[in-house]
Amino acid sequence: MTSLLIDSRFRTLADREYRAIAGLSMGANQTMRIFMNNLDVFSHYGGFSGTSNYPSSEEIDPDTFLGGKFKNAKELNKKIKIFFLSLGSKEPSPFPGSVGAFRNMLDKQGIKYVYYVSEGTAHEWQTWRRSLYQFAQLIFR
Q1: Taking phi first (over 0 means left), then psi (-120 to 50 degrees means alpha), and beta for anything else, what does residue 67 get?
Q2: Residue 4's pLDDT band (boundaries 50, 70, 90)?
Q3: pLDDT tens for residues 26-74?
Q4: pLDDT tens digits along 91-107
Q5: Which CATH architecture has domain 27-139?
Q6: Does the structure show a pLDDT above 90 at 89?
Q7: Which sequence spans correspond to the domains of the chain?
Q8: Which long-range contacts (CB under 8 A, 24 or more apart) does 55-59 make?
Q9: pTM to 2 decimals?
Q10: Mean pLDDT of the chain, nearest integer
């Protein structure tokens, strides 16, 4: 993936250092897969109320998860500028479990990330609005 449609239609800084991708709920699952398979295109990721291990809360094996994309922490920490995850404090099952298992894997691997909890919200637009606001503060510096 060398050029993006958005770069051809809008005035952008057409470089991976200035590109982000984000998604909410199942879209967080999909955008994480797109992001991890296109680190030459994107440097910032935002996942709001979802991860690619959804709906599982089982321990994640970084050697096999997403084809081993998370096994080299040193390389990922160099390539990824912002890896942002968020969740509402009142999210229903299975979201806290799957996001928690994913965070445990990141912690064990030593992969840097930012985690935000939207207090008093569930799997809803208020969670995602707050998450987008927090994510935007990090990527538009």
Answers
A1: left
A2: confident
A3: 999 999 999 999 999 999 999 999 999 999 999 999 999 999 999 999 9
A4: 999 999 999 999 999 99
A5: 3-Layer(aba) Sandwich (3.40)
A6: yes
A7: 27-139
A8: 55/94, 55/97, 55/98, 56/94, 56/97, 56/98, 56/101, 57/94, 57/97, 57/98, 57/100, 57/101, 58/101, 59/101, 59/104, 59/105
A9: 0.94
A10: 96
HEC string of the chain equals: CCCCHHHHHCCCCCCHHHCEEEEECHHHHHHHHHHHCCCCCCCEEEEECCCCCCCCCCCCCCCCHHHHCCCCHHHHHHHCCEEEEEEECCCCCCHHHHHHHHHHHHHHHCCCCEEEEECCCCCCHHHHHHHHHHHHHHHCC
- The answer on pLDDT for 1 being more than 70 is no
Q: Fill in the amino acid letter for 117.
A: V
Total length of the chain: 141
